Amino acid sequence: MFERDETDPNAIANAEAEAEAEDAGKLAGVPKVGDPEPDADLLSALDDDVEPEPADEDDDPLEEIEHKGQKLKVPKSLKEGAMREADYRKKTAEAARLREAAEAERAAVKEREKQLEAERETTNKFLVEVGELRAIDAERAEYARVDWEKWIEQDPTAAQKAQVRLNLLNNRRQEIGSKIANKIAEDRQRQEAERSKTRTEFETKARAEIKDYDKRKDEIAKEAVAAYGFKAEEIADFIDVRAMRALADAVAYRKLLAKAKAGTAAPQQKVVPLRAKLSGGGGSAQADPSDKDTDAEWERKEYARMQKIGKIPK
């Protein structure tokens, strides 16, 4: 390299300019006296560009949750969120279930109201027909008291009209009577079907809730009649499983109580005749094993002997 001539005025000026430029580069960004204050928004934007330091794992520890049948470890904050979501889903499902149950109940009520309305209409028609039947019978009773031969002689036209009227009444009565008889038969069939259905439902529930129900039901019915005063037809008409369960428990308790009493009863003591006691127990009686007296005869003779020798006062 060429050495700079320190005596050259141009060279000296260039060197000073280079030194000033280098100092300016080093002092760039350093605030000087009299400079304006830095913009706060600018400083905030610069801070946002700085990447945050990683959070300490102890600040949000991992906890275990169950998701779709799998156990997972997630931060505590996520677990709390998952629990809130699960609780929300559970409450939503329960609300939906209750809403469906309420809707089903309302539908059942409406259906029952329709059935009742139809039954009311049928009953009203039935009552009208019964009333008409009674009116017909009353009018026919009036004709039954008529002397037809005399009436025909006196007024054959009126008598003929009356006979036509009577025939109409008889035909109408037969028609109404058939309707009423059919209605009664239908009601009986319907009631029997409902009773059979109810009894079947009762039997199904009883088998599910009472152990060995099919084997025990005859025993329960028999005990209910004997111990509690029920009638056999009352037991046959049971449709409430709760009542049958209570009765079954009562019968079972009575059996256990009877068994416990039988197990704790004192054994009966064997009655040993006086003759055997004295002969085998070192008594004073002169027992002779070869004698043929019965125990009663022997005791009578022994009593007399003891009186004779003065051991028993006369």
Low-pLDDT parts are 26-33, 281-287
Gross morphology: flat
**Through-space gap between termini:** 172 Å
Mean pLDDT: 77
Structure annotation, total helices: 10
Strand count, sense and barrel status of the largest sheet are: 2 strands, antiparallel
> Approximately how much beta-strand content do the residues carry?
under 5%
- What's the Cα radius of gyration? 58 Å
**Largest sheet strand order:** 1-2
Helix content: over 70%
Q: Would you kindly provide a written description of the structure presented here, covering whatever features stand out?
A:
The chain has 314 residues and is mainly alpha-helical. Among the domains are: 98 residues; 49 residues, no CATH class. The protein is built from ten helices and two strands; from the N terminus they run ααββαααααααα. A two-stranded antiparallel sheet has the order 1-2. β1 and β2 form a beta hairpin. α3 runs antiparallel to α5 and α4 runs antiparallel to α5. The radius of gyration is 58 Å and the shape is flat. About 5% of the residues have low confidence.
